[in-house]
Design a protein that fits this description.
Number of strands: 4
Low-confidence stretches: none
Shape: globular
Order of helices and strands: HEHHEHEEH
Structural class: mainly alpha
Strand content: 5-15%
Number of helices: 5
Mean pLDDT: 94
Helix content: 40-55%
């Protein structure tokens, strides 16, 4: 299942995000399982897990590659916009 999560995350283009729940729904699993898979990810370049956020746009507290500040910085560098510390999902949500 982890590899299936990684395959979907690789499809998220720079400048966009998706949610744990969206990936879980596509794989018919729980959002928590997606979180476990991403936390186990060892290669943030190959699997851009910083592009996965909570359903309300909040960033992951346990982002494994430097915490929330690092995740936010990576997303901002890619052009993702925020509203009050949440990703602006109406503009930056990837539904592919």
């Amino acid at each position: 299942t982890f590899e299936k999560v990684y395959t979907l995350v690789r499809k998220i283009p720079a400048g966009q995000v998706t949610t744990y729940g969206s990936i879980a729904k596509k794989l018919n699993t729980a959002a928590r399982v997606v979180g476990f898979a991403l936390h186990a990810n060892k290669n943030s370049i190959d699997v851009p897990c910083h592009r996965v956020v909570h359903a309300n746009g909040k960033l992951a507290k346990g982002y494994a590659f430097g915490g929330t500040k690092a995740q936010r910085a990576k997303l901002k560098e890619e052009g993702v916009g925020f509203i009050e510390n949440k990703v602006n999902l109406s503009r930056f949500l990837f539904n592919g």
